[in-house]
């Protein structure tokens, strides 16, 4: 296992980048703890795979360094970094059996035959392929091949880190849940440093100890699922995490009040003068319909999703989503929305402002 340090790391695919916009990865400084499980989360093109390939040694950064346990590995090839990587699409040896595919990384390093057999059996159990161990990989389905690929990545116990690049893309939904559960179990048992790239928030939030949210080549927040939900450091985090995402409304902040299109909203904290593009953000879970208080809204529709209702409303051209209980009655006179003041976040130029206790 290894502590991974990104020291002034940046990358551009252009030979002569002229400015920040020419960088696929903007400069970052982060330290990821030994033995922790991280998920790199963000929309397509945000830089997740680029960062993973730099950590693995498949790509050399334009600037900065990568360190494993304080040792500079920036110029070391993948083989010298002692990592295992699982890619989005399965990489298996078709002429080998499932057993031979799983054993290959261990045999390639001269492991004892008895240990190899024991370890292969254990991993086959994890990926649900015990009955297929002696079948050739050729002819297996895409999701079966990806399970083999996952197994090969997990079979070694001595790696510095396990890197997963959207590994469950071709796996059926039920098996995705099973494999995520097994990955978490393996992490608890062996304590590998794991980095898991995904654009799926459910995968990220259920797999990782810490989620690394990326946007436009930047790491905009590293935090636990609870931190990302309750206190998004950037409006993108608020919008991207949650279903529906955070409501974001332009506002003028005066002390412990937000002024929005002539209406005043109480805040849970006190703020000094703010410059730039100022907004407030509040989760649909912390909004409620009212007949007497809050912002006047026009309700467009109500969606019953089983465990709760999602109320889609509009306020002066801004969409507002409200989550109501399944048994909550929504009367015709409920044309206002009120927010839980303690759950409102304030942003200036998309970045969260802390404020002071009111």
Describe this structure in words.
The chain is α+β, with helices and mostly antiparallel strands. The chain folds into two domains: 4-240, Rossmann fold, CATH 3.40.50; 248-357, OB fold (Dihydrolipoamide Acetyltransferase, E2P), CATH 2.40.50.140. The chain is built from nine helices and 23 strands. The chain has helices spanning 48-56, 78-81, 98-107, 113-126, 142-154, 173-190, 201-207, 225-230, 235-240, and strands at 4-11, 25-32, 37-41, 63-68, 71-72, 83-86, 161-165, 193-198, 210-215, 218-223, 247-250, 252-260, 263-271, 278-282, 287-290, 295-296, 298-304, 308-315, 318-325, 336-339, 345-348, 351-353, 356-357. The strands form six sheets. Strands 6-7-8-3-9-10 form a six-stranded mixed sheet, with helices on both faces. Strands 2-1-4-5 form a four-stranded antiparallel sheet, covered by helices on one side. A hairpin with a 2-residue loop joins strand 9 (210-215) and strand 10 (218-223). The longest helix has 18 residues, at 173-190. The protein is globular. The model has no long low-confidence stretch (mean pLDDT 91).
Topology overview:
Elements: E1 4-11, E2 25-32, E3 37-41, H1 48-56, E4 63-68, E5 71-72, H2 78-81, E6 83-86, H3 98-107, H4 113-126, H5 142-154, E7 161-165, H6 173-190, E8 193-198, H7 201-207, E9 210-215, E10 218-223, H8 225-230, H9 235-240, E11 247-250, E12 252-260, E13 263-271, E14 278-282, E15 287-290, E16 295-296, E17 298-304, E18 308-315, E19 318-325, E20 336-339, E21 345-348, E22 351-353, E23 356-357
Parallel strand pairs: 3-8, 3-9, 6-7, 7-8
Antiparallel strand pairs: 1-2, 1-4, 4-5, 9-10, 11-14, 12-13, 13-23, 14-21, 15-20, 16-20, 17-18, 18-19, 21-22
Helix pairs in contact: 3-4, 3-5, 4-5
């Amino acid at each position: 296992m290894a502590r991974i340090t990104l020291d002034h790391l940046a990358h551009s695919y252009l030979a002569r980048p002229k400015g920040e916009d020419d960088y696929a990865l903007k400069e970052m400084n982060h330290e990821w703890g030994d033995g922790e499980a991280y998920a790199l989360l963000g929309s397509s093109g945000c830089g997740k795979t680029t960062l993973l390939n730099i950590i693995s040694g498949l790509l050399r950064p334009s600037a900065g360094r990568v360190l494993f346990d304080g040792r500079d590995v920036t110029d070391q090839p993948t083989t010298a970094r002692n990592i295992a990587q699982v890619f989005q699409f399965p990489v298996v040896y078709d002429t080998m059996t499932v057993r031979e595919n799983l054993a290959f990384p261990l045999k390639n390093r001269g492991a004892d035959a008895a240990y190899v057999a024991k370890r292969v059996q254990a991993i086959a159990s994890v990926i649900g392929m015990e009955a297929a161990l002696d079948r050739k990989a050729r002819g297996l389905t895409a999701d079966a091949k990806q399970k083999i690929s996952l197994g090969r990545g997990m079979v070694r116990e001595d790696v510095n880190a396990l890197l997963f690049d959207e590994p469950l893309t071709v796996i059926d939904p039920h098996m995705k849940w099973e494999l995520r559960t097994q990955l978490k179990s393996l992490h608890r048992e062996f304590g590998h440093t794991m980095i898991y790239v995904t654009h799926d928030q459910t995968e990220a939030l259920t797999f990782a100890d810490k989620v690394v949210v990326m946007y436009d080549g930047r790491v905009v927040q590293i935090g636990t699922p609870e931190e990302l939900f309750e206190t998004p450091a950037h409006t993108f985090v608020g919008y991207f995490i949650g279903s529906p995402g955070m409501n974001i409304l332009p506002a003028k902040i005066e002390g412990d009040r937000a002024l929005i299109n002539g209406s005043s909203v109480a805040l849970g904290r006190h703020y000094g003068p703010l410059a730039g593009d100022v907004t407030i953000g509040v989760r649909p879970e912390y909004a409620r319909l009212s007949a007497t208080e809050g912002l006047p809204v026009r309700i467009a529709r109500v969606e019953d999703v089983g465990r709760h209702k999602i109320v889609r409303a509009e306020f002066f051209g801004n969409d507002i989503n409200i989550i109501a209980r399944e048994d909550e009655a929504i009367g015709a006179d409920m044309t206002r929305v009120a927010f839980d003041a303690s759950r409102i976040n304030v942003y200036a130029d998309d970045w969260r402002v802390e404020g002071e206790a009111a």
